[in-house]
């Protein structure tokens, strides 16, 4: 079986018809299910947050069997993820897709436990610090997508767990926790 | 000399008939007794044999298959009932019922992928993986036996022969001769094209398309439009399973 780095590809990735969107409903549902799992799995292990439909995404083609997914198939698989809340389109033309291997809610929970683990319950830090600071090193928050992080933070702000405010520099925001 | 008719003659004749009948009955009884005795001996021998080779029968699939064959030849079915001597002695009934349940499980689990048609080979392989912990090895012969026992539950399960290969069908789809011929053709590469079906089976394009469309609708085939020659391929997961398919087959 092929591997992409550490990632073990499933058997169906080498079976040519899985690269053609199936016309029969039951078969297609099964096909979409397998692809959804594969995309989420792959993105989670490789820390990929955004998939561009027209970009070179490794899963979209398999040179070994000389098959690649049509634009229609790519959109179908990602749309299926979107409809389950595991992804979001970043634009109206469906060119770029945000992959949520953790739902926003789960990301928010991760932030809470990060804050608690580091005793930051009523401290202040910036969004960038959270993504790339020393404290988050080794956690899932390190290097995470800014769009998703902001969404998760807004979610927490909504629940009154923190306040987001404009920082001194224009391109970064500060967070004041109040757990 | 002519025998004279008379009452004495008739009586003599009747007496002789009676004698013959008695003798006949005696002979018949003797034969039956002998037969019964032989059968009893045979049965005890068979029991002895089974008892002696109990472990072999349980653990060695080849031996088990030969034992079944021997039983079939003499008209004994160790699987006929779960109760009684054979089951108690060998626990063989339970073994096959267990297999049956696992086979149903596997067929259901793989149905979305293969449309309810699975090769015996693949089924055996999955069964083996599933029973890793169990002591006994399972042969294709055991699978077939377990499937034949499933028949009592209705017509859900059937074994179809395709050339040398055997497929197990777990959906009520009726496959006609055309479908079988296509499946047989597909065994070579795992797929067929409309052209190929027309050429190899000398069918009209309508007949080929019709049969392929039906197989597609039934979930037994998957289409593949990705080849660079632009010809649509119809793949059959039941004859070339995803897991056993390796990319080198096409290159």
TrEMBL record, chain A:
Gene3D superfamilies: Winged helix' DNA-binding domain. Chain C. Domain 1, Winged helix-like DNA-binding domain superfamily/Winged helix DNA-binding domain. GO terms for biological process: macroautophagy; protein transport to vacuole involved in ubiquitin-dependent protein catabolic process via the multivesicular body sorting pathway. It holds the Pfam family ESCRT-II. Keywords: Protein transport, Transport. The keyword Protein transport applies. SUPFAM superfamilies: Winged helix' DNA-binding domain. Coiled coil: none annotated. One of its GO terms (cellular component) is ESCRT II complex. The keyword Cell inner membrane does not apply. Belongs to the VPS25 family. This is ESCRT-II complex subunit VPS25. It comes from Handroanthus impetiginosus.
From TrEMBL, chain B:
GO terms for biological process: protein transport to vacuole involved in ubiquitin-dependent protein catabolic process via the multivesicular body sorting pathway. The keyword Chloroplast does not apply. It holds the Pfam family EAP30. GO terms for cellular component: ESCRT II complex. Component of the endosomal sorting complex required for transport II (ESCRT-II). Belongs to the SNF8 family. This is Vacuolar protein sorting-associated protein. It comes from Handroanthus impetiginosus.
């Amino acid at each position: 079986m092929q591997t992409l780095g550490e990632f073990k590809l499933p058997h169906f990735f080498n079976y040519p018809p899985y690269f053609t969107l199936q016309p029969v409903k039951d078969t297609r549902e099964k096909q979409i299910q397998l692809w959804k799992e594969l995309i989420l799995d792959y993105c989670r292990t490789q820390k990929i947050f955004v998939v561009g439909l027209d970009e070179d995404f490794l899963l979209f083609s398999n040179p070994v069997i000389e098959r690649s997914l049509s634009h229609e198939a790519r959109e179908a698989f990602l749309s299926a993820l979107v409809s389950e809340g595991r992804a979001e389109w970043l634009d109206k033309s469906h060119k770029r897709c945000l992959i949520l291997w953790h739902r926003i809610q789960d990301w928010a929970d991760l932030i809470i436990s990060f804050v608690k683990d580091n005793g930051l319950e009523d401290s202040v830090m910036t969004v960038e610090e959270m993504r790339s600071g020393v404290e988050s090193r080794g956690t899932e928050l390190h290097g995470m997508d800014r769009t998703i992080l902001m969404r998760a933070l807004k979610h927490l702000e909504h629940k009154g767990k923190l306040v987001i405010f404009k920082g001194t520099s224009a391109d970064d925001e500060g967070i004041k926790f109040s757990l | 000399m002519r025998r004279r008719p008379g009452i004495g003659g008739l009586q003599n004749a009747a007496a002789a008939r009676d004698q013959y009948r008695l003798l006949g009955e005696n002979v018949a009884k003797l034969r039956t007794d002998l037969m019964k005795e032989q059968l009893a001996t045979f049965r005890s021998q068979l029991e002895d044999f089974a008892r002696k080779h109990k472990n072999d029968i349980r653990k060695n699939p080849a031996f088990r298959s030969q034992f079944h064959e021997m039983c079939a030849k003499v008209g004994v079915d160790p699987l006929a009932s779960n109760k009684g001597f054979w089951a108690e002695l060998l626990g063989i009934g339970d073994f096959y019922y267990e297999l049956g349940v696992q086979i149903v499980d596997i067929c259901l689990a793989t149905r979305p992928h293969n449309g309810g048609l699975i090769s015996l080979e693949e089924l055996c392989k999955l069964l083996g993986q599933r029973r890793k912990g169990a002591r006994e090895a399972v042969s294709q012969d055991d699978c077939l036996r377990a499937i034949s026992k499933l028949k009592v539950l209705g017509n859900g399960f059937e074994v179809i022969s395709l050339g040398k290969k055997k497929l197990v069908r777990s959906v009520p789809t009726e496959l006609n001769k055309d479908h079988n011929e296509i499946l047989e053709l597909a065994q070579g590469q795992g797929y067929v094209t409309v052209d190929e079906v027309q050429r190899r089976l000398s069918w009209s394009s309508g007949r080929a398309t019709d049969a392929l469309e039906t197989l597609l609708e039934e979930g037994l085939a998957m289409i593949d439009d990705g080849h660079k020659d632009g010809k649509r391929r119809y793949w059959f997961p039941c004859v070339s399973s995803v897991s056993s398919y390796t990319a080198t087959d096409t290159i």
